[in-house]
Structure formats: C-alpha cells, structure tokens
C-alpha cells in the first residue's frame, strides 16, 4: 500500500522503484537508517568511491570509512550530489517548502478529501 511504513533498511531496499515519488518522513527515515549503525557526528564528506563491495567515503579530515551504502542527505550544496550528478543544475525558485506531520481527525480528513480530493493528501495510519 502507498502508506506502508518500514521498520528497517532491508525493507526500504525491497520497495519497488517503479514509482515516480516515494514519500518519506525525515524523522522515520533517520530512525530506520540509524538502526544498528555506528555514527561519527561532525564529520564532513568530501567525496566517495564506489566498488563492487561497497563505498569508500572520504572526509575533510583526511579519514576514510568503508560502508555498504552512502546516503547523500547533506543539503543543497551536497558534495555527494555534485559527484554523483555533476551535470545537475540547481534552480532557486524563491520558494520555501516546509513539511510537517499533523494528526487530523478522521471527520476532518473526510471533509477535506470530499472538498479537494485526495491528490495532495496522504493518509498515514499508525
């Protein structure tokens, strides 16, 4: 179902990638990605090298770490994105987008859907 909630990284990998959009709540994704992982906070990734076995990540302090996957969640000026997609151009549309989780009572959700349809809404249970 479109509102499936995953419990771990293995479940994320199994999600078919034939959809144009996958909605992810940042806090839930972070919890799933951090499960069973040792994190060294305050390090800045400056590049990476993919191998058949995994990924070598290079940090600005000169250190390197080997990992199975690299999640490029380091913002608009991401060195990971620049290396992976060097031809990608970023455009500033002058728009700020803010996401939030809001628990909407069922009666109100039904009313909103009746008035506006469900195209811009995602009902998430659980």
UniProtKB/TrEMBL annotation:
Keywords: FAD, Flavoprotein, Monooxygenase, Oxidoreductase. InterPro entries: FAD/NAD-bd_sf. PANTHER family: FAD-BINDING DOMAIN-CONTAINING PROTEIN (PTHR47178:SF5), MONOOXYGENASE, FAD-BINDING (PTHR47178). This is 11863_t:CDS:1. GO terms for molecular function: monooxygenase activity.
């Amino acid at each position: 179902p479109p509102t499936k909630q995953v419990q771990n990284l293995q479940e994320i990998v199994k999600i078919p990638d034939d959809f144009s959009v996958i909605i992810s709540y940042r806090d839930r994704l972070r919890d799933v990605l951090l499960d069973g992982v040792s994190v060294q906070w305050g390090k800045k990734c400056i590049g990476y090298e993919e191998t058949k076995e995994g990924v070598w990540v290079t940090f600005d302090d000169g250190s390197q770490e080997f990992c199975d996957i690299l999640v490029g969640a380091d913002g608009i000026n991401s060195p990971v994105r620049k290396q992976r997609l060097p031809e990608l151009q970023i455009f500033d549309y002058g728009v700020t987008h803010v996401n939030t989780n809001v628990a909407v009572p069922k009666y109100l959700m039904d009313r909103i859907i009746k008035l506006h349809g469900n195209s811009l809404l995602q009902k998430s249970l659980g």
